[in-house]
Amino acid sequence: MAAIDPDRSGIEALERRWQDAWNRHSAKDLGALFTEDVDFVTVGGTWLKGRTDFERYHEEKLRTQFKDSLFRVNQVHTGRLRPGVALVHVEWRLEGDRDLDGTPRQPREGIFTQVVVKDGDSWKIQAQDATVLPGPRRGPLNTGAGPVLGREGGQARKIERQPRV
């Protein structure tokens, strides 16, 4: 039986707390997952600097555009950069959110890229960039070198990244 990596377990717990806080639509609980000096880039390219900026932005969004949304963590990939610091990629799915004009959006999937740091016995997010994948993902995230590949009709294809809007 393989030993359980406490760092990996702690990081996975952090991502479960993100999912739970989002689904309760609590900007305050989400903010508690971050360091005070967090750098956070939204899927729309808004750069939030600091926990207060993060909470203020998400408080409004979770009351409006995301009030009926449901967030799910699909998979967590971790890599230790040095003791107490890790690079994390989180594959996620979001459904039930709306455009600014109130039009329902289609469910979407994306990837968070995070730098997480050990804070006592737990982990906090120090930096995060959020990316929405162009169309449905057809297979696991490519964790190796080279282009990200998708599957369509059984044929591998390179996924062209779409510019942020």
What features would you highlight for this structure?
disordered C terminus, Nuclear Transport Factor 2, Chain: A, 3 helices, 165 residues, alpha+beta
Protein model, in words:
The chain is of the alpha+beta class and 165 residues long. It has one domain (6-134): Nuclear Transport Factor 2, Chain: A, CATH 3.10.450.50. Helices cover 22% and strands 40% of the residues. It is built from three helices and eight strands; from the N terminus they run ααββαββββββ. It has helices at residues 6-23, 27-31, 51-63; strands at 34-41, 47-49, 70-82, 85-95, 108-119, 122-132, 149-152, 155-158. The strands form two sheets. It has a six-stranded mixed beta sheet with strand order 2-1-6-5-4-3. The model is unreliable at 142-165 (pLDDT under 50).
Concise structural overview:
The chain is an alpha+beta fold and about 160 residues long.
Number of strands: 8
Question: What structural category characterises the helix and strand content?
Answer: alpha+beta
Number of domains: 1
- Specify the CATH architecture: Roll
Radius of gyration (CA) equals 16 Å
Remind me, CATH topology? Answer: Nuclear Transport Factor 2, Chain: A
- Going across the biggest sheet, name each strand in turn: 2-1-6-5-4-3
| H and E string | HHEEHEEEEEE
